[in-house]
Amino acid sequence: MLPLLPFQPRLGLRLPSAAAAASAPPFPPRGPTGVVSVVVVGRARSSVRLTGGGGGGRRRGSALAMASGDARVAGIASSIRVIPDFPKPGIMFQDITTLLLDPKAFRDTIDLFVERYKDQGITVVAGVEARGFIFGPPIALAIGAKFVPLRKPKKLPGEVISEEYSLEYGTDKIEMHVGAVEANDRALVVDDLIATGGTLCAAVKLLERVGAKVVECACVIELPELKVCFASNKLIN
Amino acid sequence: MVAVDEAPPPAAAKEKDRGAADPRLQGISDAIRVVPHFPKPGIMFNDITPLLLRPAVFKDAVDMFVERYRGMGIAAVAGIEARGFIFGPAIALAIGAKFIPLRKPKKLPGDVFSESYVLEYGTDCLEMHVGAIEPGDRAVVVDDLVATGGTLSAAIRLLG
User: Fold this and answer.
1) What is the ipTM of this complex?
2) Full-prediction pTM beyond 0.90?
3) How many CB atoms lie within 10 A of CB A164?
4) B55, B96, B108 ranked by CB distance to A103: nearest
5) Could you list the residue range(s) of the whole structural domain that residue A133 is in?
6) Do A130 and B110 touch (CB under 8 A)?
């Protein structure tokens, strides 16, 4: 097994600074927030392809493929099922429910994340509704961090803060409880999949608005259309 | 066809009348917040999110279920969207069972079974993937809260 890379974000997602920071108290300048994934979906075919990052047809500076030489990754990748034309024609949907039916693959997925984060002083794991609720809590429990659900509007009772983000057509919103995350919390954002990065960017903004440091975003799957949701529209290596 | 065991309701509510209560129950009970008039006037909403903010208490809650179900040959833990997704997978992982998400309509891709159930006004529907559960599988259903039991009953019918 290849040693895990030393912990530093290889990819920077530089977040839009002006709007989000305008109403926030002064914090240390934000550095770029990295995204990692276990499985990277190949561009040429719909089947899952493992990559060590860069090379071949892959765009440089894509999300770091975590532990790509690890023997567990192949089993995880092969447990994910692709459903064509869901939720609409032309979309090849990466279905993690088959991974969840394989206790070893599920265990290995969690272990990979736990090994990466257990010594990073993470105090909060934020999971994006709903599939982030499946992967986030086991990670949080294993590393002794709080778990914070980031939810669709009107699901969380009591006082919330919300962040809007763009969809292909229109906008959506995610919400977080006021007081769940505190200034100087070190946060990890978890979801099953990153596509354009829009939802994750909104999650990062929410956490940063309350003064947390988002250490990284962790996803099981990365799609090749990973874009950037920030002003400069550049990936920073 | 499928043996289904309903997960016990929040432990504090059920256990406090018994003799020597598990010392973990107090912390779990204290970590649940009641939010009045949510989602509508008159409803006292039991909010588990503060429990999730206390790692030791969250762990205790999961451990209590794991201790109950480990060694019972449970093949599958089915969690009800969305708060059942927070508790179910950790239990499944600890006892070596598969995790099956039971979801609102149109969320699961591919072939699904569907079961409708009655709400105060109208009906709702729960779905499960075809093939997730196999005949003879011993299953546990997990959710954060049971009220009327309508959703849990639908889950049991889905699995059976």
Assistant:
1) 0.89
2) no
3) 11
4) B96
5) 37-43+121-222
6) no
